[in-house]
Structures are given as structure tokens and as C-alpha cells.
Design brief:
With 405 residues, this protein is α+β, with helices and mostly antiparallel strands. It contains 7 helices and 26 strands.
């Protein structure tokens, strides 16, 4: 029996972002060898933290920077797009259903799965038996889905390249309606959270513990478990050249002194994290534009060492070095200076986090090709105002993104 496919819109914890029109002073900057910049990070951070720039208040955090590099490469990113048809489609569907059944546990039948197939831009869902009987001829694979959310809270959705889009491992229902409602609100960006923890915090807060369904669990323990799980324990091979790293942890209250953790993850490459939008839609200069999140993911944990819910894309990009090698960049202190200039006259901002990361922009939107280049990224707050600032590590150009006003 065919059924029309309903599009799934995936929205991550986050808030609408707005590009601000901040301007900055023209500033003379020096480009230094990458290893020299690395050696200067601790002294640069200490000097700025001690008040070198009067309008910047620096929190306690570790500055994320790749270790032991003498060159940093610009990258080219493009999506994996497997156009699987015919006999290859049937073989891949069999393989993926086998993987999903092994992961979801006993009692899962082939007939429980639906197969989304495309012909041109139109898609329909088919029963597995219909695919085996040849009704998939001249169509290509969109997704393999197991949907038993109403019965046992289990759901799993694969793309052809084994990119996991949505997964619930089950058990939410047994933990009560509050668990279900909170995690669904979290994935839609509507949940109130007790606190957000930054991965690179150096104030000791990562040792904080909260009472999950089966006992006390620290933020640091959760980070270690989720990173190991998403890189090494997935039911299919993942790209080891672009490991996933936890970016931050949201603590969600379930009531009655019970909590859950929601982890946002980003890919990394050559030891450098990608900056990733957590929003499902962004606004640039006031005009709304849809924006697909390819390399961001969210993981919910209700019990210790257990992934209960997953939202995101895990395995669907090809990341390659270009031939553009960068051996000289702006120092951390100079990057702070450019941020200070950028914010001059706007009051004092608290810098919550600083890291050296990759920022990407489309070079060909039709083919969805992106160029990733190195930046110094700063997250800052003033009262309820939250912003991100990106300093191009070579040119010194500054972009300012308002997250919350």
C-alpha cells in the first residue's frame, strides 16, 4: 500500500539568528606562524582576561585550538548523494533493515518498515514487500523508516548513505509524559532549561551532577559517553576523519528533582570544530531564508550511559582539504582586539567562549558545495543580549550575529 510521504522538519535547540550591521575600526594586524600563535594563546588569554580591553569581560574557559599544526587548510564540503536504484536499491534496503533490526532489538519485523522512494522530485512510501516485488523500478531510495512512536516510542530513519536523521531508542513512555513532552519541546527549541554548559568551560562546572532517572550523573561523564557513542557505537560505520564533538549541554527539568541532558554536537576536521547553526531557519538582513542543518545533531539522555533520543544528520557529507594551505594567522590577542573595536560604544560584553573553528559558506548553492575557512569565534553576552562574532583568521574581517536581544 502506497502512502504519500509527509516531510519531516527538524528543528534544533536554538534561537533565531539575525546578522547585525555592526561596523568596526580599521585595524593593523600581524599574521604570525600557526605554531607561534598556539604558543602565545595562554599568555594572550591571561593578558586580555586581566583587562587589556576595557569593554571585554572574560569568563573562565579553555581556548579551543588545534595542537601541533604548522598549516591549516581551507576545506571543500559537499553532501553525499547516493542515487541508488534497481537491484542496488533492494540490496541496500535489505542491508539497512538488517542494521536497524539489530539495533532496535527483538520482535522487529521486516513488514514494520516503510521505504521512501523518489521519482524526480516526488516521493512516496512503499511497504518492504512492494520494493522486493519490483515496484521500485526506475525510482531511487530516499529513506528507510521504522515508525512505532505511538506503540513503543521507537523510531529510526536512515538516508541511503547511512545518515541517521531521527532515532528514538524507546523507553520514554515508561518514564512518564513529562519526559516525552520535555524532549519534544527541546527538539523544537521550546523547552526551558535549567542551565547550559559549554564544553570548553574551565571553571569546574563540568563536574556538576544532576539526578537522572537512574541516579546522579555529571556533565563531564555525559560528554564522554555521548562522544564515544556517536563516534564508535553507532550501528553503522561513521566517517572517522570528521569525528563528532559535544558543543554544549542543556540541562532540562522533568520535575520532582529529575533531569535530562540534551547535547548538541558538531563535526570536527583536523582537530578543528565546525561552527554550525543550531537553528532550522536563519534571517539575514531581515529576509527569512530556509537553512538546512547538515552537520549538527542533538542527543537526549534520560538515563546514565543511554542515548534515548537523537535528532540530526551524522554521515552525509564529504569533507576534503583544498590546496589552499594557511601557515600564518591572526593571534588570539589581535582577534580579541578586533572584537573589542567591533563592540566599541555598545557597553561591556562578557565573553563566554572562544575557539578556533571552521566557518562555511556556499560557493555553489545548486550543488550545495561549501567552502570552509578558519575563524576565531567568540560567544558574548550583555544582559539578555547574546551574540556570536567571527574574526577571519587571515583577513581580520569581522561578522557579528545576534542570537538574542
Amino acid at each position: 500500500m502506497k502512502s504519500k510521504n509527509l516531510k519531516l522538519y527538524i528543528i534544533f535547540i536554538g534561537i533565531i539568528a539575525v546578522y547585525s550591521g555592526c561596523s568596526r575600526k580599521e585595524n593593523t594586524i600581524d599574521l604570525l606562524p600557526v605554531q607561534t600563535v598556539e604558543k602565545m594563546i595562554e599568555s594572550d588569554y591571561t593578558e586580555v582576561k586581566n583587562g587589556y580591553y576595557s569593554n571585554l569581560i572574560i569568563d573562565d574557559f579553555l581556548v579551543m585550538f588545534p595542537k601541533g599544526k604548522d598549516q591549516i587548510y581551507e576545506l571543500m564540503i559537499q553532501p553525499k548523494r547516493l542515487q541508488v536504484t534497481g537491484g542496488a536499491l533492494i540490496s541496500l534496503v535489505k542491508e539497512q533493515i538488517g542494521v536497524a533490526k539489530g539495533y532496535l532489538g527483538d520482535g522487529i519485523r521486516d513488514s514494520d518498515f516503510e521505504i521512501e522512494l523518489f521519482e524526480g522530485n516526488e516521493s512516496e512510501r512503499y511497504q518492504y514487500s512492494e520494493v522486493l516485488s519490483g515496484e521500485s523500478e526506475n525510482k531511487y531510495l530516499g529513506m528507510v523508516l521504522y515508525d512505532k512512536m505511538e506503540e513503543d516510542e521507537k523510531y529510526m530513519q536512515f538516508n541511503p548513505e547511512y545518515s541517521l536523521v531521527w532515532m528514538s531508542a524507546g523507553g520514554l513512555k515508561e518514564r512518564g509524559n513529562s519526559s516525552v513532552s520535555v524532549i519534544m519541546a527541546a527538539t523544537q527549541g521550546q523547552a526551558d532549561y535549567v542551565r547550559v554548559y559549554y564544553r570548553n568551560s574551565a571553571d569546574g562546572s563540568l563536574e556538576d551532577t544532576y539526578n537522572l532517572a537512574d541516579g546522579e550523573y555529571s556533565i563531564r561523564e555525559g560528554i564522554s559517553f555521548v562522544e564515544d557513542y556517536m563516534n564508535n557505537k553507532m550501528p553503522y560505520p561513521v566517517d572517522s576523519s570528521a569525528p563528532k564533538r559535544v558543543d554544549r549541554v542543556y540541562v532540562l527539568s522533568l520535575g520532582n528533582n529529575r533531569f535530562a541532558y540534551y547535547f548538541t554536537l558538531r563535526k570536527s576536521f583536523d582537530g578543528i570544530m565546525f561552527d554550525t547553526w543550531l537553528e532550522g531557519r536563519m534571517y539575514q538582513e531581515g529576509s527569512p531564508e530556509s537553512y538546512t542543518v547538515y552537520d549538527s545533531a542533538g542527543v537526549a539522555v534520560f538515563e546514565k550511559n543511554s542515548v534515548d533520543f537523537f535528532y540530526g544528520y551524522i554521515n552525509n557529507q564529504i569533507i576534503q582539504r583544498t590546496d589552499k594551505a594557511i601557515d600564518k594567522i591572526i593571534s588570539l590577542k589581535d582577534a580579541f582586539g578586533l572584537v573589542s573595536d567591533h563592540l566599541e560604544g555598545k557597553g561591556n560584553y562578557i565573553i563566554k567562549s572562544t575557539e578556533f573553528s571552521y566557518r562555511s559558506k556556499y560557493v555553489n548553492e545548486e550543488e550545495e558545495k561549501e567552502r570552509a575557512y578558519p575563524v576565531w569565534k567568540f560567544e558574548a553576552e550583555k544582559g539578555t543580549n547574546m551574540i556570536k562574532l567571527y574574526v577571519n583568521a587571515v583577513s581580520g574581517a569581522v561578522e557579528c550575529v545576534t542570537l538574542k536581544e
